[in-house]
Every structure is written in structure tokens, then in C-alpha cells.
Design goal:
GO terms for molecular function: U3 snoRNA binding. The protein is of the alpha+beta class. Among the domains are: 352-469 and 478-506, Methylamine Dehydrogenase, Chain H (7 Propeller), CATH 2.130.10; 537-646, YVTN repeat-like/Quinoprotein amine dehydrogenase (Methylamine Dehydrogenase, Chain H), CATH 2.130.10.10; 655-786, Alpha Horseshoe (Serine Threonine Protein Phosphatase 5, Tetratricopeptide repeat), CATH 1.25.40; 838-1001, no CATH class. Helix content is 16%, strand content 38%. It contains 13 helices and 65 strands. It has a five-stranded mixed β-sheet, with no helix packed on it. The protein starts with 10 loop residues before the first strand and ends with a helix.
């Protein structure tokens, strides 16, 4: 019984091929497990075994020019064209120090055996030595007349020598003790590119582009021998005894009495071959016959050779770096005749340029063929993603790929190229089986037969389609020579370039897509036209037949995908969603879904029945040229202009199972959380709320907790038990709570306890703590300012309440007992109020000048200041106003009774004396006398004035004297207040001494 059809909803992506080397320095780590490579302006650390990028150190937008490891392998130095040198910690990936070293880019660097000194060689013709720990320059060597191209310390820690080679053809030996040039070795006639020192430390080897390797005796700095290599050398290595490479002897008895030994040298250079030499007699012990560094089948078209090499003693391998950013690893291999040869064990591809096409190979899709902007096709192992083979044969860029498996189980690969040809390859052996030549322009599309696997069709920029029969090729068991194919049918198909071809599952039809905005259906094998599918507004980039229906799929530069009927050629469905040209598309899930890739860098998953875009994936930084679907449609491979190949695996079932499991776990945790809240188990409740990522529940827990007893203690316990992984989440919650008025108080309380519990040294280690605090601090300042304003406002309320204490009877006065607050409002006559009512303030003099704070009156100084006079008003611990001042208040609404008194008294009128709470604005007169605790109405012929006094039992006047002292003063004049607040009062005829006497008598 067929299994139920399940739609795909999600794909998990993993980078299969990453860009990690774009040219420049390459350095192997001391433990030989990783290699640091320059990748534009970054440094990428790659595992040698798998080619996976494990670390990336961001640069400063300028290309990397030099890299070196420290001897312990814990730190890394990198110099860029920006003149900056950066010191990186490998474990934390932190930049320990960055400084400008030279006036020109640093070309080479070296670290001494102790790890304490760093030597930098620059294009400014200088060599500088730096103290790594101190960060300062210890030596500055000048003398070269050209760019210093290489530098190396002596491997013996006790021999403080430094060697440098330059474009001026000289090698200089620098003495670090005397800070002088110990020797100048000038036997090269071109740039010195490489230096190495023998294991015993007494021989120096130098290589240059003059095609010579010089061997120097470090005892007297004499030239021991010059070895002609006959090619420009980029790297020379002194091989250890017993290295096992071809031509190297394991006999160590050749040590000479002089202490000098014959050395085995390994050289690589412009020819792209590995050579082994012996210094005794300058003999060549081994030389590769064929170069693996070339990228073309024609030797004259080879694009450079090796640019660097390194010996890996733990692996017994030689790593060679090619000019086209490949890392080749060679091991010694014994041939049938017992002769040793170097065998290419594996490849790491640092830079694939643009990925043009991809195809899965074999029944189990165990390999992946990749076509790039190169003449070769690379085949990768899907398990390790290492390059298994390089199919060399085309003489120009490969544009299209297709694959199939013959009835005999042989995996075949077809490739078409700009060289006007199509090649058929045995994908398992990498051998070329046949060549189909006949097109007059670049062949942009190729397709195998889907059913019988006995023919190939090709479409070209010459606007023709050719049919090639390969039945004899498939039937042959062993092919020793490349077969020349001839076309069986030709059709002038389109008016513009042909971009794509697809063969129907039953081999009866062929569909072609062209830049002329049409797709055409042809009957095979005669290439008879059937339909012309018109509807796209731009060129058609991809075509494919449905595996289950009589329909064909097309994608175009008009950002649309269309499905056409093969019955009448009508358009059945149109899919829109891409924002750029749709370059590739394919059916998946038994023809019920389709996947598309576009120039917008997006991969989209569609359901055909609903015309719905199920998911969109964005994991490319450039247009996606290539899309490959595995035979079971469970895996996808995409590649594009970003030189990255991504592998996609269907994870729909895993996601659904994970969602069900998480739902069950959340239900259990929700129940546990409810139980913890009911049991007031705050610690457990908060832990569960954090696990569930429920910020509202966390807020609820803290809100309830802070309203209970021992809130601070419980809060500290919760924060102390909180896992470090949740510290960042806690700060994120606090930041969000702090922005809302309802929760800001809880946020501040929790933040206070958090800073009390967690040390500052741990807080600074929280990821993104700076961004979190930048979100917390502004709102905290706002809350602080608001609370400060409220606290200052509360002081005014406290002051008002303190001044209202005048209504409360004192203990030593007679009066009814206060039983509740209502007695204060029921008209009870309190003694202190009656005492205030009996106060009769007579203003005798027409002009009175109040004393200032220093007690000055009419130019004389009083013994008793105004503050002391005010203190005389204070009894029983009550506070009084520090400034007793007479205010002139114009009363707009005077009572009719006051008017009559003013007329009858000949100018005298009642004055309103108020005991205020320090405010300058008096209460307006309502026209009817109202007796209050803060106001006493007095009769006077002057305008109503507010006199600030402190009421006491003795009925003192506003000036501090006895009330009888002012009884006869009837001719008082109005008191005026200036705009600046200065009291322009009345002079009183009564002496100040009398008032002082009345105060002292108390």
C-alpha cells in the first residue's frame, strides 16, 4: 500500500562548500590540525581533515598580507594592507592588540621559538622586532634596498639571530644582541622568496625567483653550494631525515666531521610540480611527472603553479597551495615496481568562484558534481565534502551539467562548455568517455535520456538543438579511447540563446527554454515541433517536465513560474513571489510541490494545488544559478554567485515531532508552574517561567513576591539560583518591564537585587550587556527624575500639614477632648483659636520698616535678629515660618461692613492678618468675615493687609511684642510691597527696645 503523501514544509540548511581562501598567505598551525587562510579581508581557520571553517577573524576591509601563529598555537598575528597588525586569541577570538607597525604593508612575519618576539618585514624596506607582551618595538633594522619579502628567526632560542630576504637579491643576518647586521649574503640575482634553517641550526637555505637555491654555512656565512632548480621557486623546505618522501634516504650516517650534513630539500614553484633535491652534488632525487596545479588539459593554458608549501610531519604529507586557491595534500605511495611516488590524497578548494551548475551523481546521490567559472568539473564526496576528482578536458568554462545511471549501474555525467563541445564522463573513475563537437557557439544546455539513458540532447547559443546517440557508448564495457559522437538530428529551435533543456520521463518529448521568451515542446527523436509556449515577458531560464502529469514547468526573468498543459499548450498555473529572475525550478514531492531559486538569493517552496508559497529560505548573498534535487527529493543543493554551495535536507517530519514533544513538555511545565505559584515556591516558579520563555509569568511571580513578607530575601534567593544562561534573558525582561508604568517598579526592584547578587565581573561577561543597559538606563533616569519631583512635592504637603497643627489643642490648655477627627469640623471653640481671635494688632506708625535678616533697623544693629525673634514665637516644639513679613494685599471683594467702618473711622479700617503657610498669595476675601486657623481679621483704616505671624498663647503682635504695646497706634499707614518682593513698610514710632523688652519678659 502506498504511503500517504506528506507535503514538505521546511528544509534544514548546512553550508557544504564555503569560501575560505582567496589568495595570499596560508599558515599551518603548530599542531597541524588547522590552517589559517587569508580570505579577502578576513582570516579563516579551517580544519585540515574536513575543510570546515571553524573560526573567522574579521579584518578591517583591507586584504590580509601576512599571517603567523605563535609557537604554542594559542594566538595568531595577521597584517593587512591597512598597515595594521592584529593579535588574536584563538580560543576566545578576541583581538588582544592592534597597532600600526610600518609605513607600508607588512609582507612577512615570524615569531621566535620562545614566543616573546615578533619580526615584521615590510615593503618600506625595514625589519622591525616587537616585544609581544609589552607591545613595543625592540629593534629596527634598515639596510635592504628593496621590499623585504621573507623573514625568519633562528630556531635555537639561545642564538638570537634573524634572517631576512629582499627583492634586492640579498639575504641579511641580524644580530639581536648587538642590534647590527652580522652578514650580507648576496649571491641571488632576483627576489628572495623563501628561507629555511636546518635542524642542527648551522645551515641556512635561501630560494629565489632566479631559479637557484643557495645553501649557506652559518659558522662563517659562506656559500656552501648553489642548487639550480630551473624554475622560479616560491617555497623551499628542509626535509627531516626519514621523512619517507620519494628519493629521501633514511640513512643518517652521512653526517660529516665538520658538522655539516647533506640536506634533502623540497621545492615548489611556477611549474606546479613538487621536487626533492639533495645538497650533496645538487642532485634531484624526485620530480613529479604531471602537475596537479594546472587547471587546463593543455599545459600552455595552465594558470600558474604552486605559491606555497608546508611539510606536515605528523601526517606524513606535503601541503601545496596552488595559484587558483586549492590546497593539495600529497603522500608517499609505493608503485608496482617498488618505486615511490607522490600521490594526491585529497583536495581542499578555497575558492570556487561562481557556482554555475550542480548535479547529484550515482544511485545514492553520494557525490555532487560542481561546475564553476573554470574549465574543470569538480566532484565532491557528500559525506566529507572533500574534492574527490577534477574532470579536466574542457578548454573553456563549463556551463551546464546533467547526470544519469546506466542500466549497468555506471554513473555518467554530461557537461557542456563555452568551447562548443559536450563531454560524457564516467563519474566513478573521472575518465572522459566521449566528446560531442559540432555546435558553432557556446553550449548552454545539456540533458540525458530519462528512461533508456541512450541519448543526449544539447542546446547552444547558435540557436540549434542537437540529438546525440550514445547507445553504443553505454553498451561498451571498457572504453580506452575517447569516442567522437555525431549528431543524429538538428533543429533550428529559437531566435535567441537556448538556456535550458528537459526530456520527458518517457523519452518522447523534449522542452527547450530560450532568451526569446518562449518555451517549445519537441517530439523525439526527430526534433519535430509540437507546441510553442508563449506567456513569459522575459527570457525563459529553466524548464522541467512533471514526473506524474502531462505538464511542463518554466521559470523566467519576469519573476514568474508557470505550469503549462501538454495537451493543448495552455497555461495552467502561475506562481509569483520572487523579486528577481527565477533562474532554476524543479518538481518535488511526487510532482505536488515545486522548489525555485532566483537572482534575489531566495529559495522558495511552493504547493501546486493551493498556489501557496509554503516557505522561503534566505541563505545566499548573491544570485542562485544552480539548483540540484536528489532522486528522492529529500535533499537539495544550491549554489550561486557567492561561491557557496548549501545543502538542504527535508526536516518536516522532525519539526512536527519536535513540535509535539515541545507542546507536551510545555503543558507539563505549565502545570508545574501553576502548582509552584499555588505553593508559593517562588524559586521553582521563576525557573519554570524562564524555561518556558514566559516574561509575563515571570513578572507575575515577582509582582506577587514583592507584595509578600521577606520579598527582598526571596528575590535574592531566586536570582542566586538562576542559571547563568538566563542572566541575559533576565536583563531583557527587566528592560521591557522598565518601559511600562505598571511594571517599572517591579523592574527597578528586581534590577537592584540583580546587581546586588551578581558581581560586576560577571555582568560584563553577559552577551550584549552593553545594548541591554543602553535600553535600561534612559528609562531608569526618567523614573528617578519623576520620583525626585514627587518627593519634593510631598515636602510641600508635609509642610502644609505641619502648619495645620495650629488647629490641634496643646496639652496644657483647657478644652474638650478630641475623640475623632470629626470634632475638628463641628464648630468646637478651641482655646488657641480664641486666643488668636483676641489678638488686637494696632499699627501706630504710618511707616514701618521691617528688620532684615541681620537685625538692622534704621542703620542700627539689634542684639536680637529676626530669626531669634521668630524663634520666640515657637513653643512646644512647633515649627514656625522663618520669615515673618507684612504683605500688602489688594482685596478685590470687601465686605459692606468693612466699608462702613472705614468711612466712620475716618480712614481706619479692619486689616486682615493671616497666619499663612509660607505662600505669598493670600486667600481672597469672600465679603463675609470667616474666622479660620490661619487668618485673623483686624480693623484698620488702611487697606487690608496680610500679616504673617506665629500665633501663641500670649497674643503677640506681628512684630514680636506684646499686644498692649500697639494698642494706641491708630494712625497706621498702608504697607507696600515692591515688585522685587522687598517690603516697603511703615515706620513705627514705638521703639524697638520696647518690643525687645516684651520678648525678654517672656
Amino acid at each position: 500500500m502506498a504511503s500517504a503523501l506528506s507535503y514538505k514544509k521546511n528544509f534544514k540548511v548546512s553550508p557544504a562548500l564555503q569560501l575560505f581562501y582567496t589568495g595570499g598567505p596560508v599558515v599551518v598551525s603548530p599542531d597541524e590540525k588547522t590552517v589559517a587562510c587569508a580570505c579577502t579581508d578576513d582570516v579563516k581557520v579551517v580544519e585540515l581533515a574536513t575543510g570546515v571553517v571553524v573560526k573567522t577573524f574579521k579584518g578591517d576591509t583591507e586584504p590580509i598580507t601576512a599571517i603567523v601563529y605563535s609557537p604554542d598555537g594559542n594566538t595568531l598575528f595577521a597584517a593587512s594592507r591597512s598597515l595594521q597588525i592584529k593579535h588574536w586569541d584563538l580560543s576566545s577570538q578576541a583581538c588582544l592588540r592592534s597597532w600600526k607597525a610600518h609605513d607600508a604593508p607588512v609582507v612577512a612575519m615570524s615569531v621566535d621559538a620562545s614566543g616573546g618576539l615578533l619580526a615584521t618585514a615590510s615593503a618600506d624596506r625595514r625589519v622591525l622586532v616587537w616585544d609581544i607582551e609589552g607591545g613595543f618595538c625592540t629593534h629596527a633594522f634598515k639596510g635592504h634596498t628593496g621590499v623585504v619579502s621573507c623573514v625568519q628567526f633562528h630556531p635555537d632560542i639561545h642564538r638570537l639571530l634573524l634572517f631576512s630576504g629582499s627583492d634586492d637579491g640579498t639575504v641579511r643576518v641580524w644580530d639581536l644582541v648587538t642590534k647590527t647586521c652580522a652578514a650580507i649574503l648576496n649571491k641571488h640575482f632576483s627576489a628572495v622568496t623563501s628561507l629555511d634553517v636546518s635542524r642542527n641550526g648551522w645551515t641556512l637555505v635561501s630560494a629565489g625567483r632566479d631559479k637557484v637555491v643557495n645553501v649557506w654555512n652559518l659558522r662563517d656565512y659562506s656559500l656552501q653550494i648553489a642548487v639550480p632548480i630551473y624554475e622560479a621557486i616560491e617555497t623551499v623546505l628542509v626535509l627531516p631525515e626519514g621523512c619517507g618522501l620519494p628519493g629521501c634516504s633514511n640513512d643518517s650516517s652521512a653526517q660529516k666531521k665538520s658538522g655539516q650534513a647533506s640536506l634533502n630539500l623540497l621545492t615548489v614553484g611556477e611549474r606546479g610540480i613538487v621536487s626533492v633535491w639533495n645538497t650533496a652534488g645538487a642532485t634531484c632525487l624526485y620530480k613529479q611527472k604531471v602537475s596537479d596545479a594546472t587547471v587546463s588539459s593543455k599545459q600552455e593554458d595552465a594558470k600558474g603553479g604552486f605559491v606555497a608549501a608546508a611539510w606536515l610531519p605528523s601526517q606524513g604529507e606535503v601541503m601545496c597551495v596552488t595559484a587558483d586557491q586549492r590546497l593539495l595534500f600529497y603522500t608517499s605511495d609505493t608503485q608496482e615496481n617498488d618505486e615511490k611516488d607522490l600521490k594526491l590524497a585529497r583536495r581542499l578548494i578555497g575558492y570556487n568562484e561562481e557556482i554555475i551548475d550542480l548535479k547529484f551523481l550515482g544511485d545514492g546521490d553520494s557525490s555532487l558534481a560542481v561546475a564553476t567559472n573554470l574549465e574543470q568539473v569538480r566532484v565532491y564526496d557528500m559525506t566529507t565534502m572533500t574534492c574527490q576528482q577534477e574532470l579536466v578536458g574542457h578548454t573553456d568554462i563549463v556551463l551546464s551539467l546533467d547526470s544519469c545511471v546506466t542500466t549497468a549501474g555506471v554513473p555518467l555525467l554530461a557537461s557542456s562548455s563555452k568551447d562548443h563541445s559536450v563531454r560524457i564522463w564516467n563519474a566513478s573513475t573521472g575518465s572522459c568517455l566521449a566528446v560531442a563537437a559540432g555546435h558553432m557557439a557556446a553550449v548552454g544546455a545539456v540533458a540525458f535520456s530519462k528512461k533508456k539513458k541512450n541519448f543526449v540532447v544539447s542546446g547552444s547559443s547558435d540557436r540549434t538543438i542537437k540529438f546525440w546517440n550514445i547507445e553504443a557508448l553505454v553498451a561498451a564495457e571498457d572504453i580506452t579511447e575517447v569516442v567522437k559522437l555525431s549528431s543524429q538530428a538538428v533543429a533550428a529551435a529559437h531566435e535567441k540563446d537556448i538556456n535550458s533543456l528537459a526530456v520527458a520521463p518517457n523519452d518522447s518529448l523534449l522542452c527547450s527554454g530560450s532568451q526569446d521568451r518562449t518555451a517549445k515542446v519537441w517530439r523525439l527523436p526527430g526534433l519535430t515541433p509540437v507546441f510553442t509556449l508563449k506567456g513569459h515577458k522575459r527570457g525563459v531560464w529553466c524548464v522541467e517536465f512533471s514526473p506524474v502529469d502531462q505538464a511542463v514547468l518554466t521559470s523566467s526573468g519576469d519573476m514568474k513560474i508557470k505550469i503549462w498543459s501538454l495537451v493543448d499548450g495552455s497555461c495552467l498555473k502561475t506562481f509569483e513571489g520572487h523579486t528577481a529572475s527565477v533562474l532554476k525550478c524543479s518538481f518535488i514531492t511526487r510532482g505536488t510541490q515545486l522548489v525555485s531559486a532566483g537572482a534575489d538569493g531566495l529559495v522558495k517552496l511552493w504547493t501546486i494545488k493551493t498556489n501557496e508559497c509554503v516557505n522561503t529560505f534566505d541563505h545566499h548573498e548573491d544570485k542562485i544559478w544552480a539548483l540540484a534535487v536528489s532522486s528522492g527529493t529529500e535533499k537539495l543543493a544550491t549554489g550561486g554567485g557567492d561561491s557557496v554551495v548549501n545543502m538542504w535536507t527535508d526536516c518536516t517530519v522532525d519539526d512536527e515531532e519536535e513540535a509535539i514533544r515541545q507542546e507536551e513538555e510545555e503543558a507539563l511545565k505549565d502545570q508545574d508552574l501553576s502548582n509552584a505559584l499555588a505553593d508559593t515556591d517562588w524559586v521553582k516558579a521563576v525557573q519554570l517561567a524562564f524555561e518556558l520563555r514566559r516574561p509575563f509569568r515571570v513578572l507575575k511571580v515577582f509582582t506577587e513576591l514583592l507584595g509578600s513578607e521577606g520579598a527582598d530575601v526571596h528575590t535574592r534567593q531566586i536570582l542566586q539560583s538562576l542559571d547563568k544562561d538566563y542572566w541575559k534573558l533576565m536583563l531583557e525582561y527587566i528592560r521591557d518591564w522598565n518601559t511600562k508604568p505598571k511594571s517599572c517598579h517591579v523592574a527597578q526592584r528586581v534590577l537592584h537585587e540583580f546587581f546586588s547578587v551578581v558581581p560586576v565581573s560577571k555582568i560584563v561577561e553577559i552577551p550584549q550587556v552593553r545594548e541591554l543597559m543602553e535600553g535600561i538606563i534612559p528609562y531608569t533616569k526618567r523614573h528617578s527624575s519623576r520620583i525626585d519631583r514627587l518627593s519634593r512635592s510631598i515636602f510641600l504637603l508635609d509642610y502644609t500639614l505641619a502648619r495645620m497643627n495650629v488647629l490641634i489643642p496643646v496639652d496644657n490648655l483647657s478644652g474638650p477632648e478630641i475623640k475623632d477627627a470629626a470634632d475638628l469640623t463641628q464648630g468646637t471653640s478651641w482655646p488657641i483659636v480664641e486666643n488668636l481671635n483676641r489678638m488686637d494688632v494696632s499699627l501706630e506708625e504710618k511707616e514701618t520698616t521691617m528688620t532684615d535678616a541681620n537685625g538692622v533697623h534704621d542703620g542700627k544693629t539689634f542684639d536680637q535678629t529676626e530669626d531669634e525673634m521668630v524663634d520666640a514665637f515657637v513653643e512646644n516644639g512647633r515649627e514656625a515660618d522663618a520669615n515673618c513679613k507684612i504683605k500688602n494685599v489688594e482685596n478685590g471683594s470687601k465686605s459692606s461692613k468693612s466699608k462702613k467702618k472705614r468711612k466712620g473711622a475716618g480712614g481706619s479700617a479692619d486689616e486682615k492678618v493671616a497666619v499663612e503657610d509660607g505662600l505669598r498669595t493670600p486667600e481672597p476675601n469672600s465679603g463675609k468675615k470667616k474666622k479660620t486657623s490661619s487668618q485673623v481679621l483686624l480693623n484698620s483704616d488702611a487697606p487690608e493687609a496680610v500679616v504673617e505671624v506665629e500665633p501663641t498663647r500670649d497674643g503677640l503682635t506681628e512684630n514680636g511684642g506684646d499686644k498692649n504695646d500697639s494698642a494706641g497706634d491708630d494712625d497706621a499707614t498702608p504697607v507696600q510691597v515692591s515688585n522685587t518682593g522687598t517690603k516697603l513698610g511703615r515706620k513705627k514710632k514705638k521703639s524697638v527696645g520696647a518690643r525687645r523688652k516684651s520678648l525678654s519678659s517672656r
